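User: Before I run my own analysis I want an independent prediction to cross-check against. Here's the chain; please return only the structure tokens and, at the end, one sentence I can use as a sanity check.
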Amino acid sequence: MDAAKLPEIEDAQLAVLHENAERLERSGTKSQQAAATALMPAIVAELAVRREAKLARAKEAAAAKRAAKPAAPKKTAVKRKAS
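Assistant: Structure tokens:
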């Protein structure tokens, strides 16, 4: 697989590709091991980019949710009259 195509594939497909590359590095033929080893840094980098993007989206969503939520009324101390 061409590393330039990694950004185009779906998350699930990328995860499967990562698993397969790990497996081939361990137990593939010499040519499969070489190909998997050569592709692995690009796969890991793409996974990291996607994780960072997902984290950024989650932070943005949380900030938007906080901004949309009305502020809670402040509690004030009530002075009691002596009886």
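Sanity check: Residues 3-68 form one domain.
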